[in-house]
Amino acid sequence: MALTHEQRNYAVGLRPHMHEAEGVCGDMGLVVELDDGLFIAQLDVLGHGPEASDIAIRAKSFLEEISQKDSLVDIMQALHAHLKGTRGAAVALCRLDYGKDELKYAGVGNITTKLHAPTGITLVPRDGVVGYIMSTPREETLTIPRGAVLILHSDGVPSHLDLSMIEGLMESDPQTIVNRMINELGKKDDDVGCIVVKV
């Protein structure tokens, strides 16, 4: 089924380390619209600067090519092989199926993935670095209620924050949430990447 305008309710935001030029960011966010939902990827290449940015761009292009694969584990393992020999990255992958009200998730490394539905659920990644050494990925499936807010962010935003306690944040549109997280909560001395999807 085709996505309605309401279902395309998402935003992606990036901000580079304060000492890097605009656009030179080792964090990367990707949302690909599918017939029945969305493929979502948040990635944080180790370190920052031009080399990290180049790896992030390479990873994004690769993920766009293989985003139609059904298994997030297969996608993660393919990305792991693709990034071999680089400094590697932390990666979170999600597939949102609107027809089934279902969210699939696989993560490796310290990308924070939270589902606010309405209380917060933190999805737990496997240990490792994609492209270097990682634990065997695992795909998790959750029922996702309408009205839920899915947030993925790199460690450029502290993971311990309870976003539901920030006044008016969850009620805002996705772009406003992304902007506030980056500008109000993001660390200046790190790249910052964030994706927000309202279901």
From TrEMBL:
Taxonomic lineage from the root: Bacteria, Pseudomonadati, Pseudomonadota, Alphaproteobacteria, Rhodospirillales
PANTHER family for the chain: PHOSPHOSERINE PHOSPHATASE RSBX (PTHR35801)
UniProt cross-references to InterPro entries, sorted A to Z: PPM-type-like_dom_sf (IPR036457), PPM-type_phosphatase-like_dom (IPR001932), Ptase_RsbX (IPR039248)
SUPFAM superfamilies: PP2C-like
Superkingdom of the source species: Bacteria
Name of this protein: PPM-type phosphatase domain-containing protein
SMART domains attached to this UniProt entry: PP2C_SIG
Pfam families for the chain: SpoIIE (PF07228)
PPM-type phosphatase domain boundaries: 9-199
Residues annotated as transmembrane: none
